[in-house]
Amino acid sequence: MAGIKLNQIRKSFGSNVVLQEFTDEFRDGEFVTLLGPSGCGKTTLLRIIAGFEKPSSGELYIDGELVSGGKTFVPPEKRGVGMVFQNYAVWPHMSVYDNAAYPLTIRKAPRDEIRERVGKTLEIVHLSQYADRLPNQLSGGQQQRIALARALVAEPKLLLLDEPLSNLDAKLRESMRFEIKEIQRALGITVVYVTHDQTEAMAMSDRIFVVNRGVVQQSGSPREIYDHPVNQFVADFLGKVDFFKGEAGEGSILLPGLGNQRLPYDGPCRGRVDVAIRPENLYFDEAGPLGGRLETLYYLGDVNDCRVRAGNSLIRVITGGWEYGKRQAGDAVRLGVRDYMVFADDGSLESMLAIRT
């Protein structure tokens, strides 16, 4: 297995800078996710690690060896990297076995070695019973596992995955998240995973790097980033959140958009602020600090997804599904607040959120 060291990695295409001075280390055996909107630079970084792109400047080390930087450039096939793309790219005329064996076949590995390693790999990805079938006889999730087997069969130091689940339906995506994570744990392999799906990032990652416009906004564990985002963009991109303009003073925040209601506050910000409230941190409570009128409610089985009108704003509230039916549209309600985030209003909120996809 191997770790990755990135030192001042920068990439530009002409005058267009797509990745700005990325410096960090991905530890041996770590599952790292690059998360961000389309065009933010995350796939470019993955391609630099794979060797499909050369950085404009900076150095890249894999397992302590310089593979890109200065006059050094190690080609992809010599980096010990396996890669799975968004498009499965499986050979339709080859069986599952032959697809998985392909990297070893082109290296002219001994037949017994191919048989042993392909058999072991198909077992890992739960495709042993389908070894003789053609890809078009399998489901989308199974075809994705063929691509995963093909990447793993050469026993790479690193596994790179570029939005591998985006073409699957919702249920398959969910099951494949856990399958990929279990495979990574079993093999102890280092994984770098690219996605714009925050649920995938939360479910699978040891660390998440949130990227926006070629700049890492924040890195940390899923919980660190979700509970303590460094700015409005990160708060919005990872999870559901509503923003409200406020004025922070002594002991409270005035919220004009919510009909001049107030929230208690003794934090460091003063003056104009953006208040961010996640809908799961709100609950119906007659003694709560916020009041409004229940406008809509949707029963989704596990949750009750509501909108409460307060002043000229809508507040989203997500409570347990068992609460559905206790209140009706039009009811006056009050809301308790478990937690909320406060950011200095520097005028960047609108531009930051405008690029979210």
Can you describe what's shown?
The chain contains nine helices and 21 strands. It is of the alpha+beta class and 357 residues long. It folds into two domains: 4-232, P-loop containing nucleotide triphosphate hydrolases (Rossmann fold, 3-Layer(aba) Sandwich); 240-354, OB fold (Dihydrolipoamide Acetyltransferase, E2P) (Beta Barrel). Strands 7-8-9-3-10-11 form a six-stranded mixed beta sheet, sandwiched between helices. Strands 2-1-4-5-6 form a five-stranded antiparallel beta sheet, with helices on one face. Strands 14-13-12-15-21 form a five-stranded antiparallel beta sheet. The longest helix has 18 residues, at 170-187. The radius of gyration is 24 Å and the shape is globular.
Through-space gap between termini = 34 Å
Beta-strand content: 35-45%
Q: Tell me the overall shape.
A: globular
Largest sheet data: 6 strands, mixed
Low-pLDDT residue spans: none
How many domains make up the coordinates? 2
